[in-house]
Amino acid sequence: xxxxxxxxxxxxxxxxxxxxxxxxxxxxxxxxxxxxxxxxxxxxxxxxxxxxxxxxxxxxxxxxxxxxxxxxxxxxxxxxxxxxxxxxxxxxxxxxxxxxxxxxxxxxxxxxxxxxxxxxxxxxxxxxxxxxxxxxxxxxxxxxxxxxxxxxxxxxxxxxxxxxxxxxxxxxxxxxxxxxxxxxxxxxxxxxxxxxxxxxxxxxxxxxxxxxxxxxxxxxxxxxxxxxxxxxxxxxxxxxxxxxxxxxxxxxxxxxxxxxxxxxxxxxxxxxxxxxxxxxxxxxxxxxxxxxxxxxxxxxxxxxxxxxxxxxxxxxxxxxxxxxxxxxxxxxxxxxxxxxx
Amino acid sequence: xxxxxxxxxxxxxxxxxxxxxxxxxxxxxxxxxxxxxxxxxxxxxxxxxxxxxxxxxxxxxxxxxxxxxxxxxxxxxxxxxxxxxxxxxxxxxxxxxxxxxxxxxxxxxxxxxxxxxxxxxxxxxxxxxxxxxxxxxxxxxxxxxxxxxxxxxxxxxxxxxxxxxxxxxxxxxxxxxxxxxxxxxxxxxxxxxxxxxxxxxxxxxxxxxxxxxxxxxxxxxxxxxxxxxxxxxxxxxxxxxxxxxxxxxxxxxxxxxxxxxxxxxxxxxxxxxxxxxxxxxxxxxxxxxxxxxxxxxxxxxxxxxxxxxxxxxxxxxxxxxxxxxxxxxxxxxxxxxxxxxxxxxxxxxxxxxxxxxxxxxxxxxxxxxxxxxxxxxxxxxxxxxxxxxxxxxxxxxxxxxxxxxxxxxxxxxxxxxxxxxxxxxxxxxxxxxxxxxxxxxxxxxxxxxxxxxxxxxxxxxxxxxxxxxxxxxxxxxxxxxxxxxxxxxxxxxxxxxxxxxxx
Lengths: 341, 503
Known about the structure:
The complex is a heterodimer of chains A (341) and B (503).
Chain A: H1 5-38, H2 48-73, H3 81-101, H4 104-107, H5 111-138, H6 142-160, E1 166-167, H7 190-208, H8 210-220, H9 222-227, H10 232-258, E2 260-261, H11 269-279, H12 291-310, H13 315-340
Antiparallel strand pairs in A: 1-2
Helix pairs in contact in A: 1-12, 2-7, 2-8, 2-10, 2-11, 2-12, 3-5, 3-6, 3-10, 5-6, 5-10, 7-8, 8-10, 11-12, 11-13, 12-13
Chain B: E1 10-21, E2 24-35, E3 39-43, H1 50-57, E4 65-70, E5 73-74, H2 80-85, E6 88-91, H3 103-108, E7 114-115, E8 118-119, H4 121-134, H5 151-164, E9 169-173, H6 181-196, E10 200-204, H7 208-214, E11 217-222, E12 225-231, H8 237-245, H9 249-252, E13 263-272, E14 279-284, E15 288-293, H10 299-307, E16 312-319, E17 322-324, H11 329-334, E18 337-340, H12 344-348, H13 355-360, E19 368-369, E20 372-373, H14 375-388, H15 405-418, E21 423-427, H16 435-450, E22 454-458, H17 462-468, E23 471-476, E24 479-480, E25 484-485, H18 491-498
């Protein structure tokens, strides 16, 4: 075989989710065009404007899912991501409100929102670090630890917010998810560009760094990784902390979208995030998963949602379709593998 | 054969090493050494202490007593990783490769060359290609995922890992047990290359012909002691066997007179999904049919297809009067067939449940009334079985995980007897248990046959097949030879048959 056969095999693995995405877009576009024709209007689904919207709706799930991809590749899981997103959003709002009250925001209109965003990201990172420490020090499975974190982070968010939504001036943080963006030639919002940049960065890190290899090795066979001298606890700690930081970034995006700090937002979001990874070819048994697959997975869910809305289906259909897409994605992957074996 | 001193100063030397697990003395003062540029074979029956010894050498266990020296300096590895760093690499029976990573990634795992955390792939590839080429395997692609390689190629990758990091001592633990003869031949080539480059090789194997082919020296372990060592050229295989067994074969394999009755189980051109391929045999009451063959030949698959754990693609199974084209475990259990899995901990027993749970799992009906279990009656019955098979346990409610391997196997046996099976399919029933427990199991199997049970005995250990069975058939690549009386076979002919030659 040629030396780049492995690269070809990887590309082939991406083909499944990618074809799924293409099929979904094709089906909804067809229905949308039919309806548009009948109602004598222009189609709205496959348009630049809708792509901008769908991308915006993908940002939060996708960014958190990049971290989740690392976690799942290392044979871990994080059930607390939704709560941590809410916590990070609340932290951003608190810092902005505090600085506004003291008049500091008016004096440093660039620096202070930056500090607020950094605080939100750090809140996520802290939760991730706590997860990582508990998982590696106690040796308790990630499922349990992060199930606990789901409650703890949610409770902390509510406590910090005094059990209500926090109204705060958003500063430029509110611009991140704004469409159309300023300047308009950006096309999509800053948040979407940030998502793309993080995707490239994370994908490269997973492939070309020692850290990335060690994450795959741990997920594939932890005992062997240990035997070969991989610092398993340190790598896991880094994985969960990084994932926490990504979740924190997703929380900042959440604040930017809502323009308030809401401690009760993103309930169940962790399941969307995990679904994005799994639809994109990640295996909960570890050792498999890719950033490209994950972003396709996140887009599949967003395009499904948008499609159902466009053609006027009830919300419950959206839920059924997204649920089915998870099962179908995994079933196809399993079938393909059985045939190869 | 006591001389056995190496020509050169030893690279690694262990003196008077002892190790106990609970009350079991696994190693009782063994001395062992290996020099640069030699292959030192370690032989002995299962449970003789070979694995314990090499685990101590490779840092997986700490010795209770004794000294070790590596290149003249005291050596007491903190763990396998520490041993590896100091140049002692162990190549495990269960391969220690990461299945999802590529050959290159596996070989370099844990010692990546990098700049600011970014892997220097070109440097990796050069080293990996060099190592594979040196072993005569430039055909293995560094970019191939390891799980897509054959078992033989995976062994080569492990050897390449040892070579790439200039391991001075490389321990092979039964490396050929799952290899084809061709792969084994290529592995031997690789081992000779490593040896000629000055590595000290420790080689464990059950196959004595292999030892004659590859080893320079041999040490025989029995019951945790070294009972002899010497140059392979000056030692006959017969002498090694004598040292290994250390007792008259007749004592180990008691014969109870028995007579064969009518045919109770037969297979006619039975084929599974991949293995077996067209296997046929007949089994009578009171008969023990041994099936020999290499690991992966399809023996386990044959038993699983018979019992209904794997689908039958083609052919027939006859159980007493019933001719079946399809089998299911539930149905076979009802027909009095019992299956003992080779994977005792993974499949054969629910090790985290108690003895009584395990023993009665396959037949709870005697203890139920209207769907409710009578725990007291069940416990009484379980206690009876514990006594009858002399299972050494505190009580019937003890967890199976706490028992020794031999006693666990007795629990698995007791379950078959409890479910009133009289056609027994035994897959490697003595794997991983000590010699004394083996002798008890042989006696038990003989007694069952004398009482009219029909037994298929699959084993990779020829002496026990010759000692226990009435007739013997050999499986190779899914095909089963005709069964012939044990007396008509010789070990050489069985091996020839098993390795694909003809009988």
